[in-house]
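Quick question: what would this complex look like in 3D?
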Amino acid sequence: MSENTEAIISYLEALHANRHLVAAAYINGGVTMEEDNQRRIRQLQQHRALVPYVHDEFRLNSSLGRHLDEVFQRQRNYVIGANFGEQINRLQRLADEFLKASHEDRLDDRDNYATDFDVGVFELREGIASTLLMLRTLTDNQFANVSTIAEKQRQNEFYIAKVEQLGSALAMLQTDLLLEQLAASTLLDPLMSIYRHQVLDRLPEWRATILDITTVLKAYLYRLRQVEPDARRVRSFALFLKKNPGYEPPDSDSLTNAPVWVSKFAGLQLRSHPDLGSGPIRDGLAEIAQGVPPATVSIVRERQSGRLLDDTDAKRVVTLPVKPVQVAYRRYIDAVHAQAEPLSALEWKRQQLPYADLDDRAWLLYVMHSLRVGAARASGTRGIGFSWNERPPAHVRSGNIVVDDVLAWKRT
Amino acid sequence: MFKRIVPTLLSGAFVCPVAYREEHTYLVDAANLAAVDDYLGKIGYRVTKTRHGGAFFATHVELGGKEERRDARELFTHIKHTLRPLVHFIEMVMRAMQSDEFLFAGAVIEANKLMAAIDSNPSFRNDLQSLATQLKGISADGSDRGRLDKVMRRLRDDGYLVLSNPDREIYQVTSKIEFILEVIEYLMEHQGAAVEEDEAATPEQGGLL
Protein backbone atom coordinates (compact mmCIF):
# COMPACT_ATOMS: atom_id res chain seq x y z
CA MET A 1 0.00 0.00 0.00
CA SER A 2 1.47 3.33 -1.02
CA GLU A 3 2.20 6.08 1.48
CA ASN A 4 -0.38 8.32 -0.22
CA THR A 5 -3.11 5.75 0.23
CA GLU A 6 -2.21 5.32 3.87
CA ALA A 7 -2.28 9.08 4.39
CA ILE A 8 -5.77 9.25 2.89
CA ILE A 9 -6.95 6.37 5.04
CA SER A 10 -5.46 8.03 8.09
CA TYR A 11 -7.25 11.28 7.21
CA LEU A 12 -10.60 9.53 6.68
CA GLU A 13 -10.17 7.65 9.95
CA ALA A 14 -9.55 10.95 11.73
CA LEU A 15 -12.77 12.31 10.20
CA HIS A 16 -14.63 9.17 11.20
CA ALA A 17 -13.30 9.26 14.77
CA ASN A 18 -14.52 12.85 15.06
CA ARG A 19 -17.65 12.50 12.92
CA HIS A 20 -19.96 14.05 15.50
CA LEU A 21 -17.78 17.13 15.70
CA VAL A 22 -17.56 17.42 11.88
CA ALA A 23 -21.33 17.05 11.54
CA ALA A 24 -21.93 19.66 14.25
CA ALA A 25 -19.52 22.09 12.56
CA TYR A 26 -21.30 21.60 9.22
CA ILE A 27 -24.86 21.90 10.53
CA ASN A 28 -24.24 24.72 13.03
CA GLY A 29 -21.73 26.62 10.93
CA GLY A 30 -18.95 26.07 13.50
CA VAL A 31 -17.97 24.54 16.83
CA THR A 32 -16.62 26.14 19.98
CA MET A 33 -13.56 24.71 21.63
CA GLU A 34 -14.17 23.50 25.18
CA GLU A 35 -12.22 21.35 27.56
CA ASP A 36 -13.84 18.09 26.52
CA ASN A 37 -13.43 18.57 22.74
CA GLN A 38 -10.11 20.42 22.72
CA ARG A 39 -8.01 17.40 21.73
CA ARG A 40 -10.40 16.35 18.96
CA ILE A 41 -10.57 19.87 17.54
CA ARG A 42 -6.78 20.12 17.49
CA GLN A 43 -6.60 16.80 15.68
CA LEU A 44 -9.09 17.98 13.04
CA GLN A 45 -7.22 21.28 12.78
CA GLN A 46 -4.01 19.37 12.06
CA HIS A 47 -5.80 17.63 9.22
CA ARG A 48 -7.12 21.01 8.04
CA ALA A 49 -10.68 19.76 8.41
CA LEU A 50 -11.36 22.59 10.86
CA VAL A 51 -9.93 26.08 10.65
CA PRO A 52 -9.94 28.74 13.39
CA TYR A 53 -12.53 31.45 13.05
CA VAL A 54 -12.81 33.85 15.99
CA HIS A 55 -11.73 33.31 19.57
CA ASP A 56 -12.37 29.63 20.33
CA GLU A 57 -14.70 29.03 17.42
CA PHE A 58 -13.71 26.74 14.56
CA ARG A 59 -15.34 26.25 11.20
CA LEU A 60 -15.33 23.48 8.67
CA ASN A 61 -12.76 23.91 5.93
CA SER A 62 -14.58 25.54 3.03
CA SER A 63 -13.60 22.81 0.56
CA LEU A 64 -14.86 20.11 2.90
CA GLY A 65 -18.01 22.17 3.42
CA ARG A 66 -18.52 22.38 -0.35
CA HIS A 67 -18.01 18.64 -0.60
CA LEU A 68 -20.71 18.04 2.02
CA ASP A 69 -22.96 20.53 0.19
CA GLU A 70 -22.62 18.44 -2.93
CA VAL A 71 -23.14 15.13 -1.13
CA PHE A 72 -26.26 16.29 0.67
CA GLN A 73 -27.43 18.49 -2.22
CA ARG A 74 -27.61 21.46 0.05
CA GLN A 75 -28.20 24.52 -2.07
CA ARG A 76 -26.36 27.74 -1.32
CA ASN A 77 -27.48 30.94 -2.89
CA TYR A 78 -25.34 32.06 -5.84
CA VAL A 79 -22.79 29.32 -5.42
CA ILE A 80 -19.64 30.04 -7.38
CA GLY A 81 -16.18 28.59 -7.89
CA ALA A 82 -12.89 29.71 -6.48
CA ASN A 83 -12.74 32.86 -8.58
CA PHE A 84 -12.48 35.72 -6.11
CA GLY A 85 -14.18 38.20 -8.45
CA GLU A 86 -17.19 35.96 -8.69
CA GLN A 87 -17.18 35.40 -4.95
CA ILE A 88 -17.31 39.17 -4.41
CA ASN A 89 -20.16 39.49 -6.90
CA ARG A 90 -21.99 36.81 -5.00
CA LEU A 91 -21.55 38.74 -1.77
CA GLN A 92 -23.01 41.84 -3.45
CA ARG A 93 -26.08 39.90 -4.45
CA LEU A 94 -26.47 38.42 -0.97
CA ALA A 95 -26.22 41.88 0.57
CA ASP A 96 -28.79 43.15 -1.90
CA GLU A 97 -31.18 40.31 -1.06
CA PHE A 98 -30.54 40.85 2.67
CA LEU A 99 -31.51 44.51 2.31
CA LYS A 100 -34.67 43.71 0.35
CA ALA A 101 -35.69 41.07 2.89
CA SER A 102 -35.11 43.59 5.68
CA HIS A 103 -37.26 46.21 3.90
CA GLU A 104 -39.99 43.66 3.30
CA ASP A 105 -39.73 42.37 6.84
CA ARG A 106 -39.06 38.77 5.73
CA LEU A 107 -37.06 37.95 8.83
CA ASP A 108 -36.37 34.27 8.10
CA ASP A 109 -35.12 35.07 4.62
CA ARG A 110 -33.03 37.90 5.96
CA ASP A 111 -31.41 35.58 8.50
CA ASN A 112 -30.72 33.01 5.80
CA TYR A 113 -29.05 35.66 3.64
CA ALA A 114 -27.04 36.87 6.63
CA THR A 115 -25.81 33.33 7.30
CA ASP A 116 -24.89 32.81 3.66
CA PHE A 117 -23.14 36.18 3.58
CA ASP A 118 -21.19 35.20 6.68
CA VAL A 119 -20.19 31.85 5.19
CA GLY A 120 -19.39 33.50 1.85
CA VAL A 121 -17.07 36.06 3.45
CA PHE A 122 -15.44 33.29 5.44
CA GLU A 123 -14.89 31.23 2.26
CA LEU A 124 -13.44 34.29 0.55
CA ARG A 125 -11.05 34.86 3.43
CA GLU A 126 -10.09 31.21 3.51
CA GLY A 127 -9.63 31.12 -0.25
CA ILE A 128 -7.32 34.11 -0.23
CA ALA A 129 -5.35 32.90 2.80
CA SER A 130 -4.88 29.38 1.42
CA THR A 131 -3.92 30.70 -2.03
CA LEU A 132 -1.33 32.96 -0.45
CA LEU A 133 -0.05 30.09 1.68
CA MET A 134 0.29 27.86 -1.39
CA LEU A 135 2.05 30.61 -3.35
CA ARG A 136 4.39 31.30 -0.45
CA THR A 137 5.28 27.60 -0.19
CA LEU A 138 5.91 27.33 -3.94
CA THR A 139 8.05 30.45 -3.83
CA ASP A 140 10.08 29.32 -0.85
CA ASN A 141 10.90 25.89 -2.24
CA GLN A 142 11.46 27.29 -5.75
CA PHE A 143 9.01 24.92 -7.44
CA ALA A 144 10.85 21.88 -6.12
CA ASN A 145 8.03 19.59 -7.27
CA VAL A 146 9.17 19.96 -10.88
CA SER A 147 12.67 19.11 -11.97
CA THR A 148 13.45 20.86 -15.25
CA ILE A 149 14.26 24.51 -15.72
CA ALA A 150 11.61 24.83 -18.44
CA GLU A 151 8.90 23.47 -16.12
CA LYS A 152 10.01 25.79 -13.34
CA GLN A 153 9.89 28.72 -15.74
CA ARG A 154 6.40 27.86 -16.98
CA GLN A 155 5.11 27.45 -13.43
CA ASN A 156 6.79 30.65 -12.37
CA GLU A 157 5.15 32.63 -15.17
CA PHE A 158 1.77 31.07 -14.42
CA TYR A 159 1.98 31.94 -10.73
CA ILE A 160 3.14 35.47 -11.40
CA ALA A 161 -0.07 35.92 -13.41
CA LYS A 162 -2.02 34.29 -10.60
CA VAL A 163 -0.51 36.61 -7.98
CA GLU A 164 -1.26 39.66 -10.13
CA GLN A 165 -4.82 38.43 -10.49
CA LEU A 166 -5.04 38.01 -6.74
CA GLY A 167 -3.63 41.50 -6.25
CA SER A 168 -6.37 42.91 -8.51
CA ALA A 169 -8.98 40.98 -6.54
CA LEU A 170 -7.67 42.44 -3.30
CA ALA A 171 -7.78 45.94 -4.79
CA MET A 172 -11.41 45.32 -5.67
CA LEU A 173 -12.20 44.32 -2.10
CA GLN A 174 -11.33 47.76 -0.86
CA THR A 175 -12.71 49.90 -3.62
CA ASP A 176 -15.52 48.01 -5.25
CA LEU A 177 -19.25 48.40 -5.14
CA LEU A 178 -19.66 45.89 -2.31
CA LEU A 179 -18.05 48.22 0.18
CA GLU A 180 -20.13 51.17 -1.03
CA GLN A 181 -23.22 49.00 -0.89
CA LEU A 182 -22.55 47.86 2.67
CA ALA A 183 -21.83 51.43 3.81
CA ALA A 184 -24.99 52.81 2.19
CA SER A 185 -27.54 51.53 4.72
CA THR A 186 -27.44 51.05 8.47
CA LEU A 187 -29.52 47.92 7.96
CA LEU A 188 -26.42 46.36 6.47
CA ASP A 189 -24.25 47.12 9.51
CA PRO A 190 -24.16 43.47 10.69
CA LEU A 191 -22.87 42.42 7.26
CA MET A 192 -20.41 45.31 7.22
CA SER A 193 -19.09 44.22 10.60
CA ILE A 194 -18.52 40.68 9.34
CA TYR A 195 -16.88 41.96 6.16
CA ARG A 196 -14.59 44.33 8.03
CA HIS A 197 -13.55 41.76 10.58
CA GLN A 198 -12.95 38.95 8.10
CA VAL A 199 -11.60 40.82 5.09
CA LEU A 200 -10.86 44.53 5.41
CA ASP A 201 -8.75 44.23 8.55
CA ARG A 202 -6.58 41.60 6.85
CA LEU A 203 -6.07 43.46 3.58
CA PRO A 204 -2.77 45.24 4.50
CA GLU A 205 -1.16 41.94 5.56
CA TRP A 206 -2.35 40.17 2.41
CA ARG A 207 -1.13 43.00 0.19
CA ALA A 208 2.32 42.92 1.81
CA THR A 209 2.49 39.16 1.31
CA ILE A 210 1.50 39.49 -2.34
CA LEU A 211 4.12 42.16 -2.90
CA ASP A 212 6.76 39.99 -1.29
CA ILE A 213 5.79 36.91 -3.31
CA THR A 214 5.69 38.89 -6.57
CA THR A 215 9.15 40.30 -5.95
CA VAL A 216 10.61 36.88 -5.25
CA LEU A 217 8.86 35.27 -8.21
CA LYS A 218 10.04 37.94 -10.63
CA ALA A 219 13.61 37.73 -9.35
CA TYR A 220 13.47 33.97 -9.68
CA LEU A 221 12.05 34.22 -13.20
CA TYR A 222 14.86 36.58 -14.12
CA ARG A 223 17.38 34.11 -12.75
CA LEU A 224 15.71 31.20 -14.58
CA ARG A 225 15.96 33.11 -17.83
CA GLN A 226 19.66 33.62 -17.18
CA VAL A 227 20.38 29.91 -16.87
CA GLU A 228 20.27 29.19 -20.56
CA PRO A 229 22.85 31.81 -21.60
CA ASP A 230 24.98 30.86 -18.59
CA ALA A 231 24.90 27.20 -19.62
CA ARG A 232 25.82 28.10 -23.20
CA ARG A 233 28.73 30.15 -21.90
CA VAL A 234 30.00 27.35 -19.64
CA ARG A 235 29.85 24.84 -22.53
CA SER A 236 31.68 27.25 -24.79
CA PHE A 237 34.35 27.90 -22.18
CA ALA A 238 34.74 24.18 -21.44
CA LEU A 239 35.28 23.55 -25.16
CA PHE A 240 37.82 26.36 -25.29
CA LEU A 241 39.72 24.83 -22.36
CA LYS A 242 39.73 21.43 -24.09
CA LYS A 243 41.07 22.95 -27.30
CA ASN A 244 43.65 24.99 -25.42
CA PRO A 245 45.11 22.68 -22.77
CA GLY A 246 47.87 25.18 -22.03
CA TYR A 247 45.54 28.11 -21.35
CA GLU A 248 45.87 29.82 -18.00
CA PRO A 249 43.90 32.77 -16.70
CA PRO A 250 45.93 35.98 -16.73
CA ASP A 251 47.72 37.43 -13.71
CA SER A 252 45.80 39.97 -11.73
CA ASP A 253 48.38 42.66 -12.46
CA SER A 254 47.79 42.47 -16.19
CA LEU A 255 44.03 43.02 -16.07
CA THR A 256 42.36 45.86 -17.89
CA ASN A 257 38.90 47.01 -16.82
CA ALA A 258 39.15 44.95 -13.63
CA PRO A 259 35.68 43.90 -12.50
CA VAL A 260 34.44 44.34 -8.93
CA TRP A 261 35.03 40.72 -7.98
CA VAL A 262 38.81 41.15 -8.45
CA SER A 263 38.82 43.23 -5.28
CA LYS A 264 37.43 40.33 -3.23
CA PHE A 265 38.88 40.29 0.25
CA ALA A 266 40.86 37.08 0.80
CA GLY A 267 39.69 36.91 4.39
CA LEU A 268 41.27 36.44 7.75
CA GLN A 269 40.58 34.28 10.76
CA LEU A 270 39.46 36.29 13.78
CA ARG A 271 40.38 35.09 17.25
CA SER A 272 39.21 36.65 20.47
CA HIS A 273 40.51 36.34 24.01
CA PRO A 274 38.56 36.78 27.26
CA ASP A 275 39.07 39.97 29.24
CA LEU A 276 40.10 38.55 32.60
CA GLY A 277 39.83 42.01 34.15
CA SER A 278 36.07 41.95 33.69
CA GLY A 279 34.13 40.46 36.62
CA PRO A 280 31.17 39.01 34.67
CA ILE A 281 33.53 37.42 32.16
CA ARG A 282 35.62 35.93 34.94
CA ASP A 283 32.49 34.50 36.59
CA GLY A 284 31.38 33.09 33.28
CA LEU A 285 34.76 31.50 32.72
CA ALA A 286 34.64 30.02 36.25
CA GLU A 287 31.29 28.41 35.43
CA ILE A 288 32.69 27.01 32.23
CA ALA A 289 35.76 25.75 34.05
CA GLN A 290 33.56 23.90 36.55
CA GLY A 291 31.90 22.07 33.74
CA VAL A 292 35.16 20.98 32.19
CA PRO A 293 36.05 17.42 33.23
CA PRO A 294 39.40 17.07 34.98
CA ALA A 295 42.26 16.32 32.70
CA THR A 296 43.66 12.83 32.87
CA VAL A 297 47.19 13.12 34.16
CA SER A 298 49.42 10.63 32.52
CA ILE A 299 53.04 10.47 33.50
CA VAL A 300 55.14 9.51 30.60
CA ARG A 301 58.30 7.78 31.73
CA GLU A 302 60.97 7.93 29.21
CA ARG A 303 62.52 4.56 28.66
CA GLN A 304 66.22 4.58 28.59
CA SER A 305 67.48 3.27 25.38
CA GLY A 306 69.24 -0.03 25.74
CA ARG A 307 72.93 -0.54 25.08
CA LEU A 308 74.91 -3.47 23.91
CA LEU A 309 76.64 -5.44 26.62
CA ASP A 310 80.34 -5.46 26.46
CA ASP A 311 81.39 -9.09 26.02
CA THR A 312 84.75 -8.34 27.49
CA ASP A 313 83.26 -7.08 30.69
CA ALA A 314 84.69 -9.21 33.46
CA LYS A 315 81.90 -8.35 35.87
CA ARG A 316 79.21 -10.31 34.17
CA VAL A 317 79.03 -12.68 37.14
CA VAL A 318 77.73 -10.92 40.17
CA THR A 319 78.75 -12.46 43.46
CA LEU A 320 76.24 -11.90 46.19
CA PRO A 321 77.87 -11.15 49.57
CA VAL A 322 77.39 -13.89 52.12
CA LYS A 323 75.82 -12.84 55.41
CA PRO A 324 77.68 -13.62 58.70
CA VAL A 325 74.85 -15.81 59.95
CA GLN A 326 75.15 -17.95 56.83
CA VAL A 327 78.90 -18.38 57.35
CA ALA A 328 78.37 -19.15 61.02
CA TYR A 329 75.76 -21.80 60.18
CA ARG A 330 78.07 -23.42 57.61
CA ARG A 331 80.85 -23.61 60.17
CA TYR A 332 78.49 -24.93 62.83
CA ILE A 333 77.47 -27.79 60.49
CA ASP A 334 81.15 -28.50 59.79
CA ALA A 335 81.73 -28.66 63.55
CA VAL A 336 78.78 -31.07 63.94
CA HIS A 337 80.27 -33.31 61.28
CA ALA A 338 83.63 -33.21 63.06
CA GLN A 339 82.40 -34.70 66.38
CA ALA A 340 80.29 -37.59 67.40
CA GLU A 341 78.44 -35.91 70.30
CA PRO A 342 75.45 -33.59 69.85
CA LEU A 343 76.61 -30.02 69.57
CA SER A 344 74.67 -27.16 71.12
CA ALA A 345 74.17 -24.34 68.62
CA LEU A 346 74.06 -21.70 71.30
CA GLU A 347 77.14 -22.97 73.08
CA TRP A 348 79.07 -23.28 69.81
CA LYS A 349 78.20 -19.70 68.85
CA ARG A 350 79.31 -18.34 72.20
CA GLN A 351 82.70 -19.96 71.66
CA GLN A 352 83.13 -18.23 68.31
CA LEU A 353 84.27 -14.68 68.79
CA PRO A 354 83.63 -13.45 65.23
CA TYR A 355 79.93 -14.23 65.70
CA ALA A 356 79.50 -12.75 69.11
CA ASP A 357 77.41 -9.94 67.62
CA LEU A 358 74.77 -12.35 66.35
CA ASP A 359 71.65 -12.22 68.47
CA ASP A 360 71.03 -15.55 70.26
CA ARG A 361 67.35 -15.66 69.41
CA ALA A 362 67.97 -14.84 65.76
CA TRP A 363 70.75 -17.43 65.61
CA LEU A 364 68.56 -20.16 67.07
CA LEU A 365 65.70 -19.27 64.72
CA TYR A 366 68.05 -19.36 61.70
CA VAL A 367 69.60 -22.71 62.75
CA MET A 368 66.20 -24.32 63.37
CA HIS A 369 64.84 -23.09 60.06
CA SER A 370 67.95 -24.14 58.09
CA LEU A 371 68.06 -27.61 59.66
CA ARG A 372 64.35 -28.19 58.91
CA VAL A 373 64.67 -26.93 55.34
CA GLY A 374 67.87 -28.99 54.92
CA ALA A 375 66.11 -32.09 56.25
CA ALA A 376 63.19 -31.52 53.88
CA ARG A 377 65.52 -31.13 50.89
CA ALA A 378 67.92 -33.76 52.16
CA SER A 379 70.77 -31.79 50.69
CA GLY A 380 73.39 -29.87 52.70
CA THR A 381 72.49 -31.37 56.07
CA ARG A 382 72.25 -35.02 55.02
CA GLY A 383 73.33 -37.26 57.85
CA ILE A 384 72.58 -34.73 60.59
CA GLY A 385 70.03 -35.21 63.25
CA PHE A 386 68.67 -32.39 65.35
CA SER A 387 66.42 -31.58 68.21
CA TRP A 388 65.67 -28.60 70.37
CA ASN A 389 65.10 -27.96 74.03
CA GLU A 390 61.71 -26.54 74.73
CA ARG A 391 61.00 -24.57 77.85
CA PRO A 392 57.55 -25.01 79.34
CA PRO A 393 55.30 -22.19 78.11
CA ALA A 394 54.32 -19.38 80.49
CA HIS A 395 50.69 -20.32 80.08
CA VAL A 396 49.30 -23.65 78.98
CA ARG A 397 47.00 -22.02 76.37
CA SER A 398 49.41 -19.41 75.08
CA GLY A 399 50.35 -21.53 72.04
CA ASN A 400 53.95 -20.33 72.20
CA ILE A 401 56.89 -22.69 71.88
CA VAL A 402 59.89 -21.34 73.71
CA VAL A 403 63.18 -22.89 72.52
CA ASP A 404 66.28 -22.69 74.78
CA ASP A 405 68.77 -24.35 72.50
CA VAL A 406 69.17 -26.50 69.38
CA LEU A 407 71.26 -29.65 69.35
CA ALA A 408 72.64 -31.21 66.18
CA TRP A 409 74.60 -34.43 65.77
CA LYS A 410 76.09 -36.55 63.10
CA ARG A 411 74.05 -39.65 62.39
CA THR A 412 75.93 -42.82 62.27
CA MET B 1 22.98 38.12 13.72
CA PHE B 2 25.07 41.21 12.93
CA LYS B 3 27.76 39.82 15.23
CA ARG B 4 27.74 36.54 13.31
CA ILE B 5 27.72 38.02 9.82
CA VAL B 6 30.66 40.38 10.12
CA PRO B 7 33.22 37.67 11.02
CA THR B 8 31.72 35.41 8.34
CA LEU B 9 32.21 38.07 5.68
CA LEU B 10 35.65 38.91 7.01
CA SER B 11 36.64 35.25 6.74
CA GLY B 12 36.23 35.60 2.97
CA ALA B 13 33.10 33.44 2.78
CA PHE B 14 30.28 33.79 0.27
CA VAL B 15 27.09 34.31 2.26
CA CYS B 16 24.37 32.58 0.25
CA PRO B 17 20.99 31.00 1.04
CA VAL B 18 22.42 27.50 0.67
CA ALA B 19 25.52 27.74 2.88
CA TYR B 20 24.44 30.53 5.27
CA ARG B 21 20.65 30.67 5.11
CA GLU B 22 19.94 32.84 8.16
CA GLU B 23 22.79 35.22 7.47
CA HIS B 24 21.67 35.63 3.87
CA THR B 25 18.09 36.32 4.90
CA TYR B 26 19.40 38.99 7.27
CA LEU B 27 21.48 40.67 4.56
CA VAL B 28 18.61 40.67 2.04
CA ASP B 29 16.99 43.33 4.22
CA ALA B 30 18.30 46.65 2.87
CA ALA B 31 18.61 48.25 6.32
CA ASN B 32 20.65 45.33 7.67
CA LEU B 33 22.85 45.33 4.59
CA ALA B 34 23.50 49.05 4.99
CA ALA B 35 24.43 48.55 8.65
CA VAL B 36 26.92 45.80 7.86
CA ASP B 37 28.28 47.76 4.91
CA ASP B 38 28.82 50.84 7.11
CA TYR B 39 30.63 48.78 9.68
CA LEU B 40 32.95 47.16 7.15
CA GLY B 41 33.48 50.50 5.44
CA LYS B 42 35.27 51.78 8.53
CA ILE B 43 37.99 49.18 8.06
CA GLY B 44 38.27 49.51 4.31
CA TYR B 45 35.87 46.84 3.08
CA ARG B 46 32.36 46.75 1.68
CA VAL B 47 29.68 44.17 1.00
CA THR B 48 29.31 43.20 -2.65
CA LYS B 49 26.75 40.96 -4.30
CA THR B 50 27.23 38.55 -7.17
CA ARG B 51 25.53 39.86 -10.29
CA HIS B 52 22.54 37.54 -9.89
CA GLY B 53 22.30 38.59 -6.25
CA GLY B 54 22.68 35.07 -4.88
CA ALA B 55 25.70 35.68 -2.64
CA PHE B 56 27.22 38.46 -0.56
CA PHE B 57 30.97 38.76 -0.03
CA ALA B 58 33.45 41.30 1.26
CA THR B 59 35.59 43.32 -1.16
CA HIS B 60 38.17 46.04 -0.70
CA VAL B 61 36.82 49.55 -1.07
CA GLU B 62 39.85 50.52 -3.14
CA LEU B 63 42.08 48.43 -5.36
CA GLY B 64 45.67 49.49 -5.69
CA GLY B 65 47.24 49.14 -2.27
CA LYS B 66 49.72 46.46 -1.28
CA GLU B 67 47.19 44.34 0.60
CA GLU B 68 44.61 44.64 -2.18
CA ARG B 69 47.12 43.56 -4.82
CA ARG B 70 48.17 40.62 -2.66
CA ASP B 71 44.54 39.51 -2.29
CA ALA B 72 43.96 39.88 -6.04
CA ARG B 73 47.02 37.75 -6.76
CA GLU B 74 45.80 35.13 -4.27
CA LEU B 75 42.37 35.12 -5.91
CA PHE B 76 43.82 34.62 -9.37
CA THR B 77 46.10 31.86 -8.14
CA HIS B 78 43.02 30.12 -6.74
CA ILE B 79 41.19 30.66 -10.03
CA LYS B 80 44.12 29.24 -11.98
CA HIS B 81 44.08 26.11 -9.87
CA THR B 82 40.36 25.51 -9.73
CA LEU B 83 38.79 27.02 -12.84
CA ARG B 84 39.63 24.25 -15.31
CA PRO B 85 38.50 21.30 -13.14
CA LEU B 86 35.46 23.22 -11.92
CA VAL B 87 34.29 24.10 -15.43
CA HIS B 88 34.84 20.52 -16.57
CA PHE B 89 32.93 19.22 -13.56
CA ILE B 90 29.94 21.51 -14.16
CA GLU B 91 29.92 20.71 -17.84
CA MET B 92 30.16 16.97 -17.15
CA VAL B 93 27.32 17.12 -14.59
CA MET B 94 25.12 19.07 -17.02
CA ARG B 95 25.74 16.50 -19.75
CA ALA B 96 25.42 13.46 -17.48
CA MET B 97 22.22 14.63 -15.81
CA GLN B 98 20.89 16.24 -19.01
CA SER B 99 19.95 19.43 -17.24
CA ASP B 100 21.29 22.97 -17.01
CA GLU B 101 19.94 23.58 -13.55
CA PHE B 102 23.26 22.84 -11.87
CA LEU B 103 24.25 26.42 -12.62
CA PHE B 104 21.54 27.41 -10.23
CA ALA B 105 22.29 28.00 -6.55
CA GLY B 106 20.42 25.42 -4.51
CA ALA B 107 20.40 22.82 -7.29
CA VAL B 108 20.65 19.31 -5.90
CA ILE B 109 23.34 16.86 -6.99
CA GLU B 110 22.73 13.30 -5.85
CA ALA B 111 26.09 11.55 -5.87
CA ASN B 112 24.47 8.14 -6.43
CA LYS B 113 22.47 9.29 -9.46
CA LEU B 114 25.47 11.09 -10.89
CA MET B 115 27.60 7.97 -10.40
CA ALA B 116 25.00 5.83 -12.19
CA ALA B 117 25.02 8.25 -15.15
CA ILE B 118 28.83 8.26 -15.25
CA ASP B 119 28.91 4.45 -15.05
CA SER B 120 26.65 4.13 -18.05
CA ASN B 121 28.89 6.11 -20.37
CA PRO B 122 32.63 5.52 -21.00
CA SER B 123 33.04 9.15 -22.08
CA PHE B 124 31.95 10.38 -18.64
CA ARG B 125 34.31 7.91 -16.97
CA ASN B 126 37.20 9.34 -18.98
CA ASP B 127 36.09 12.87 -18.07
CA LEU B 128 36.03 11.92 -14.40
CA GLN B 129 39.50 10.43 -14.59
CA SER B 130 40.97 13.51 -16.26
CA LEU B 131 39.10 15.68 -13.73
CA ALA B 132 40.76 13.81 -10.87
CA THR B 133 44.19 14.40 -12.40
CA GLN B 134 43.49 18.12 -12.76
CA LEU B 135 42.68 18.56 -9.08
CA LYS B 136 45.83 18.61 -7.04
CA GLY B 137 46.08 15.99 -4.32
CA ILE B 138 43.54 13.61 -5.87
CA SER B 139 44.96 10.35 -7.07
CA ALA B 140 43.80 9.14 -10.47
CA ASP B 141 44.04 5.59 -9.15
CA GLY B 142 41.21 3.74 -7.48
CA SER B 143 37.56 3.27 -8.38
CA ASP B 144 35.41 5.77 -10.28
CA ARG B 145 33.22 6.09 -7.22
CA GLY B 146 36.22 6.93 -5.05
CA ARG B 147 37.34 9.53 -7.57
CA LEU B 148 33.89 11.12 -7.73
CA ASP B 149 33.67 11.28 -3.94
CA LYS B 150 37.06 12.95 -3.73
CA VAL B 151 36.18 15.48 -6.45
CA MET B 152 32.91 16.38 -4.75
CA ARG B 153 34.56 16.65 -1.36
CA ARG B 154 37.16 18.99 -2.83
CA LEU B 155 34.47 21.20 -4.37
CA ARG B 156 32.68 21.18 -1.03
CA ASP B 157 35.86 22.26 0.74
CA ASP B 158 36.29 25.05 -1.82
CA GLY B 159 32.76 26.27 -1.06
CA TYR B 160 31.05 25.42 -4.36
CA LEU B 161 28.98 22.60 -2.87
CA VAL B 162 27.33 21.91 0.46
CA LEU B 163 26.68 18.38 1.71
CA SER B 164 23.03 18.83 2.65
CA ASN B 165 22.25 15.15 3.33
CA PRO B 166 25.29 13.07 4.36
CA ASP B 167 23.29 9.84 4.61
CA ARG B 168 22.07 9.96 1.03
CA GLU B 169 25.11 11.89 -0.20
CA ILE B 170 23.09 14.75 -1.56
CA TYR B 171 25.00 17.93 -2.32
CA GLN B 172 23.66 21.37 -3.13
CA VAL B 173 25.26 23.97 -5.36
CA THR B 174 26.05 27.20 -3.51
CA SER B 175 25.79 30.71 -4.90
CA LYS B 176 29.56 30.79 -5.26
CA ILE B 177 28.77 29.29 -8.65
CA GLU B 178 27.53 32.76 -9.66
CA PHE B 179 30.94 34.17 -8.83
CA ILE B 180 32.67 31.65 -11.08
CA LEU B 181 30.14 32.36 -13.87
CA GLU B 182 31.14 36.02 -13.66
CA VAL B 183 34.80 35.05 -13.87
CA ILE B 184 34.12 32.92 -16.96
CA GLU B 185 32.14 35.71 -18.59
CA TYR B 186 34.93 38.20 -17.94
CA LEU B 187 37.63 35.90 -19.30
CA MET B 188 35.59 35.20 -22.41
CA GLU B 189 34.83 38.84 -23.08
CA HIS B 190 38.14 40.41 -22.16
CA GLN B 191 40.77 37.72 -22.45
CA GLY B 192 39.73 36.08 -25.72
CA ALA B 193 38.97 32.83 -23.96
CA ALA B 194 36.11 31.80 -26.21
CA VAL B 195 35.11 29.69 -29.13
CA GLU B 196 32.25 30.27 -31.49
CA GLU B 197 28.94 29.61 -29.76
CA ASP B 198 27.63 27.47 -32.62
CA GLU B 199 30.68 25.30 -32.34
CA ALA B 200 30.17 24.91 -28.62
CA ALA B 201 26.49 24.14 -28.94
CA THR B 202 26.90 21.47 -31.61
CA PRO B 203 28.76 18.41 -30.42
CA GLU B 204 31.11 16.76 -32.85
CA GLN B 205 29.56 13.84 -34.66
CA GLY B 206 31.40 10.87 -36.00
CA GLY B 207 30.80 10.02 -39.66
CA LEU B 208 29.82 6.61 -40.91
CA LEU B 209 32.72 4.56 -42.18
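Answer marked as accepted. The first strand of chain A starts at residue 31 and ends at 32.
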